[in-house]
Amino acid sequence: MARISVLKTYKLYINGKFPRTESGRYFQPKVNGEALGNICQASRKDFRNAVVAARSSSAWAKATAYNRGQILYRIGEMLEGRSAQFISELQTQGATKAQAEKEVAASIDRIIYYAGWCDKFAQFSSNVNPVAGNFFNFSSPEPTGVVSIFAPEANQTKDFGLLGFVTQIMPVIAGGNTCIILAAETHSLSAISFAEVLATSDVAAGVVNILTGKRDELVAFFSSHMDVDTFLYCGSTKETLKKVQTLSQSNVKSVVVRDSDNWYDDAHENPYYIQDFVEIKTTWHPIENISASGSGY
Q1: Cα–Cα distance, 119 to 71 (Å, whole number)
Q2: How far is residue 27's CA from residue 207's CA, in Å, rounded to a whole number?
Q3: CA distance 257 to 262
Q4: What residues does each domain of the chain span?
Q5: Which of 156, 216, 221, 240 is the most exposed place for a label (fewest CB within 10 A)?
Q6: Cα torsion 226, 230, 234, 237: sign
Q7: What top-level class would CATH report for the domain 9-261?
Q8: Rounded Cα–Cα distance for residues 48 and 112 (Å)
Q9: What whole-number distance in Å separates Cα of residue 86 and Cα of residue 92?
C-alpha cells in the first residue's frame, strides 16, 4: 500500500507568531499536478490583525540606525545558514538546482546590501539647509509608518518568488517602517519559510508580517485600511492599479508601484528604494545672538 505524504501546512506570520488563518481556508499550489503544501488563504480579519501588530511595533522606528543594520545583517546570516532548505523549496516550486542556488545567494546579498545602508541613509537624504536668519534649518528622514505590500509574482524564467519578495521588504524596514506583505499566489513556499528566518533572527515581533492568499480578495483591504500609511504594489495590471489608487485616497496614503521582470537587476539595489518610504522632517533651531566679544553659538 503506497504511503500518503503528509503535506506541510504553511501558516501565516503575524506579530512574531504563526497562526492559522481565522477563515479556516487553504489552497494547494501544484507543480506537474502534485500538491506542494497547504497554504493559508488569509482573510480581512487576518490582515487587520497584521496591521495592529505592525502599528504596535513602533519601537522599530526608534531603534538606532546602526542597530537596524545589525538586525538586517543577522537576517542575512540566518538565511545563509538555512540556504539548503530554501534551495530545496525553490526546486520544489520548479527551479533547477542552479537557478535555486543563484536566487538564494542573490537574496542573501540583497539583504546585506540594505543592511549596509541603514546607518548611512540619513546622511544621504538629510541636509543642512542654507537660510537667511538667526537660526539653523535641518531636514532629516523619518519612517512613514506602516506599509502594506503586494509581493511580485514569480517569473519562472528568472526567479521563483524569493528574490522579489526579499527586495520589497528590506528597503521598507531599513528605513524604520513596519510592514504587512502578501506573498505571491503561485510561489508561496519560500515566502512563508522566510518567516521562520525572521522568527529566529533579532527582528522584533510585528515588524514584518507575512500573509498568503488571493490578491483579488485582499487588494481592497491592503489599499483602503485607514491605519496603513503607504501601499507598495508590485505588478502591472491596470485595473488593479486603478482600484488601488482610488481606494488609497481614503486616508491620502501614498502608492509606490514597482513592475519588473528581473529582480536580479542591479537597479533594485538602490538607496532611493528606502527613500520611497520615508518623509522628510524639517527642524528650525534658533541661534543665540553674537556676543559683544564676537563669539557666539
Answers
A1: 12
A2: 26
A3: 15
A4: 9-261
A5: 216
A6: positive
A7: alpha beta
A8: 31
A9: 10
Q: Quick one: pLDDT at residue 109?
A: 98
CA pair distance 156, 123, nearest whole angstrom: 38
For residue 289, what pLDDT is reported?
61
How is residue 108 written as a grid cell?
542573501
Region 126-150 average pLDDT: 86
Collapsing DSSP to helix, strand or coil, 251 comes out as helix
Query: Which position has the grid cell 542654507?
Result: 130
Decide if 108 contacts 163 (C-beta within 8 A). Answer: no
**How many other CB atoms sit within 10 Å of the CB of residue 161?**
30
- Pick the closest to residue 181 from 235, 160, 172, 110 (CA basis): 172
Alpha helices in the chain (DSSP H): 44-56, 59-62, 65-81, 83-92, 97-117, 121-125, 162-174, 189-199, 215-224, 238-247, 272-275
The answer to whether 114 touches 274, Cβ cutoff 8 Å, is yes
Does residue 90 contact residue 190 with C-beta atoms inside 8 Å?
Answer: yes
Residue type, 75: I
Three-class secondary structure of residue 106 per DSSP: helix
Cell digits of residue 251: 486616508
In DSSP notation, 144-213 reads --EEEEEPPPP-TTT--SHHHHHHHHHHHHHTT-EEEEEPPSS--HHHHHHHHHHHTSSPPTTSEEEE-S
pTM confidence score: 0.90
Predicted confidence (pLDDT) per residue in 27-43, tens digit: 988 877 788 889 999 99
Average per-residue pLDDT for the chain: 90
Can you give the pLDDT at residue 290? 52
